[in-house]
Design goal:
Helix content is 17%, strand content 53%. By secondary structure, the protein is α+β, with helices and mostly antiparallel strands. It has two domains: 32 residues; 109 residues, Beta Barrel (Porin). An eight-stranded antiparallel beta barrel has the order 1-2-3-5-6-7-8-9.
């Protein structure tokens, strides 16, 4: 009977520890929840997205795959991209953009100059984010994942 209580107590302690560890894993050195900032995004990422865009008054399919290098300071560089709009495929030249990621919500904005705008939703560790284009005439969203 005593060994059953000991096993139950040990299992309960492990369960309690398992529920608290995720909080420790996400906490910073002061034990506070992490806050996102431009520094959260740094390194090479792969962006892939699909949706629709307005062309000549009609909504047509749009897809993109591109490599984005986030600099951790609110700027980024796209090293290359392949885009398909209504089945017409082209390669986009390299380019620069800016992003803002204020505060603990890990929600921000990204602007490919001068006229492509996205809302971004970032994981606290900066490994993954989701982007949705906010320009009129677009239904376009995708995932961005840090390359290892």
């Amino acid at each position: 009977m005593s060994s059953n209580r000991t096993r139950l107590a040990a299992a309960s302690a492990l369960c309690a520890l398992g529920m608290t560890l995720p909080g420790f894993a996400l906490a910073d050195k002061d034990g506070k929840d992490p806050e996102c900032s431009p520094r959260t995004l740094h390194g090479a990422y792969l962006f892939s997205a699909t949706g629709f865009t307005s062309a000549s008054g009609a909504m047509v399919p749009k897809a993109i795959v591109e490599r984005i290098d986030f600099n951790g300071d609110g700027t980024l560089h796209v090293t290359g991209a392949t885009v398909s709009i209504n089945g017409n495929v082209f390669r986009s030249p390299p380019g620069d953009a800016t992003y803002d990621l204020p505060g603990p919500s890990c929600v921000g904005t990204l602007t490919f100059n001068p006229s492509l705008h996205f809302d971004i939703f970032v994981s606290p560790n900066g490994h993954d984010l989701t982007m949705i284009q906010t320009d009129t005439g677009n239904v376009f969203q995708g995932k961005v994942t840090r390359l290892k």
